[in-house]
Write a structure and sequence with these properties.
Pfam family, one: Abhydrolase_1
CATH superfamily: Alpha/Beta hydrolase fold, catalytic domain
Number of strands: 8
Shape: globular
Distance between the termini: 83 Å
GO molecular function, one term: monoacylglycerol lipase activity
Radius of gyration: 21 Å
Organism: Pseudomonas arsenicoxydans
Structural class: alpha/beta
CATH topology: Rossmann fold
Protein name: Pimeloyl-ACP methyl ester carboxylesterase
CATH architecture: 3-Layer(aba) Sandwich
Helix content: 40-55%
CATH class: Alpha Beta
Strand order of the largest sheet: 1-2-4-3-5-6-7-8
Keywords: Signal
Amino acid sequence: MSLALSRWLPGLFLMAALPVLAHAEGPEYGPQLQGFTYPYTVKHFEFKSQGQSLQMGYMDVAAHGKPNGRSVVLMHGKNFCGATWDSSIKAMSEAGYRVIAPDQIGFCTSSKPDHYQYTFQQLATNTQQLLKALGIQKASVLGHSTGGMLATRYALQYPDQVEQLALVNPIGLEDWKALGVPYRSVDQWYERELKLSADGIRTYERNTYYGGRWKPEFDRWVDMLAGLNKGPGHTKVAWNSALIYDMIFTQPVYYEFKDLKMPTLLLIGTSDTTAIGSDIASPEVKAKLGHYDVLGKQVAKLIPQSTLVEFPGLGHAPQMEEPAKFHQALLDWLNKTNPVR
């Protein structure tokens, strides 16, 4: 071997290893999730809010089965996107529904404003403007996780436009602040979100959402969140996330479940332990939080026209863990409580 070649070999070996290292670190996506593939075409609703021009990404999927003339709106959770509804969109479209799955402002394919006053009322207003632009006057609304809080607020704000309300492991079935969880400032949330990583997301979701279980298909959603956070929009994504966490913690809907006017379905995976701020709560407070096997039953008693369906042993996202079982329960209830039958 020549001396010149021996000098080049270490560098060549390093270059050969780079693609492997880059892959191990996972993908990076743009500030509106550019580069990540959604299951259906993403469109953008352009509107003005709080003096800013914003874009709200959404999927509008026509009925692929025999159309039933009805629409359903899917509201994603904090660590989720419209894309994570993929199996639900398919199931509901095949059942005859037009399906609208927006990404809320601050999330996923939507704008990340430099400054925004996040309230559930504001997000509900944004969504109502989107539906109005699409010509949808009434719909059934399905909310998951944080989307369950938003769907509740939407139903309270626009009761005449919501035919049925379904909540999938919604957070906000309890008031964490009132139960003793310490307050985190927006700055503290921001510092926390800046450190977000794929490993951290995976560990949290495995332990909190899925009771220690994990399916390989969940890794796609971990990469989605981590790739959005570490991409070129890193600081904007983290800042908006911090503002959204403050909204979640300080704006409970728990006290207004009693005011819901429409048929409401609670779909609850009983192994879920999600509770905002439980990581900084005292052991005594933490022990009281996130017991979905109890919370579902308690809140079902507060909602006037409620139906409770529990999925024993499933966690925070039963629609992703056992989609066939979940969608059968959901569609059976939607047909049973159909207001236009």
